[in-house]
Amino acid sequence: EGEIPLSKNLNELDQKHFIHPTSSIQQQQEHGPAYIFEKGDGIYLTDNKGETYIDAMSSLWNVNLGHGRSELAEVAKEQMEKLAFSSAFSTFSHKPAILLAEKIASIAPKGLNAVFFTSGGSESNDTAFKLARHYWKLKGKPERRKIISRKKAYHGVAAASTSATGIPQFWDMAGTFMPDFVHAETPYEKGTTEAIESVRQVIEQEGPETITAFIAEPVQGAGGVIIPPDDYFQEVRKLCDEYGILFIADEIITGFGRTGKMFGMEHWNVQPDLMTFAKGVTSGYIPFGGVVVSDEIHDMMKERSTGTLFHGFTYSGHPTASAVALKNIDILENENLAANSQKMGKRLLQGFERIKKDTNMVGDVRTLGLLGAVELVKDPSTNERFPAEWKVAGKVINALYDRGVICRPVTFDSTDIICFSPPLIINEEQIDTMVEKVYDAVLAVE
Ligand code: PLP
């Protein structure tokens, strides 16, 4: 028997049976999958043609420990053999979830000590909205139902998180699901004063007594790696306190060392009332997420809840995922990966600054830890953008693929932003190699 032409087969099977998440069906039907990855090792991914790429996005901003960590696989195997799954509903419990809840409470911002587990980011944000409303309901203010989010926010694709997402393209498919979501301005091309004024206006317009919570990513990821001015979140916190609004930090990308601190809000010493996490908590080795709530919210639940809390996912506190998360956090701490993220992020920024200086189409460059962006503009002196139809970001991304680097473009609102979010284990030499390739790719398109 001859060899099955496996790659051809896989292409056809993919086109026939696999509806890809966040993808173009048209493109899939025309070309099939561009890359079929087979192996990961450290910061590298290898496809089924044997080509190796730098995974400069940690895949979906999540593979913080890098690929191929056998310690995580071993822990998963051990837990699966012992107790792969059992329920955490009602009065059932198990050791991995209990120990993980304690661990997360110990690293979360002060005063946030109780965790509700989920299977991912969207579920975490939907859960945070429900817990926030539940808090107000228990407090005798069920009319506090609205959520303030921001433009360019990405909070996921479940019902409520789609509505919280502030990138309208995500509403095109099926519309938003909930009427109670309002989007304020974000500090992109706007300073703190203007962005805060917009939040205040939304609160005043909607009526403070109707608002449950404000949600924000410490650094907006999918919106284009938007790093806020230093005073922005402190001002947001003050505003929330002034109107008695809960503050939800969506740390789904920024958590677990991504920005050079364990959690993003630590950069500005801002305490959220609820914090959502996913992605980096298991470095993507197994789906997982959760919401940490303040003692005030937890106490309110303890004091005033009467019946059952009718909210729970089958996989809330999944034993195997919990065991992997515990080990993942252990490694993050032992290898000082938040500190490495901070150090490598600075080196990455220096590299970006050199590219900006030596080329003619780079505008703003920024990093916070290992979350970074390079903005491509027609005129760096005025920041005038390229016409969208030139698809400049797409061209640079393709040039990067050709040079063995996988990055992600953000082209909403006619921007041409290239995002970077490499594994936190990356070293100086690998940063320099990546920067050289970006340099080359920009020159090739320029
Ligand atoms: N929140 C943020 C900030 C995200 O970046 C994402 C995913 O990219 C989500 C929420 C949704 O998480 P998930 O895709 O795990 O549902």
From TrEMBL:
Keywords: Aminotransferase, Pyridoxal phosphate, Transferase. It comes from the Bacteria. GO terms for molecular function: pyridoxal phosphate binding; transaminase activity. Pfam families: Aminotran_3. InterPro entries: Aminotrans_3, Aminotrans_3_PPA_site, PyrdxlP-dep_Trfase, PyrdxlP-dep_Trfase_major, PyrdxlP-dep_Trfase_small. CDD domains: OAT_like. Belongs to the class-III pyridoxal-phosphate-dependent aminotransferase family. This is Aminotransferase. It comes from Lentibacillus amyloliquefaciens. The lineage of its organism: Bacteria, Bacillati, Bacillota, Bacilli, Bacillales.
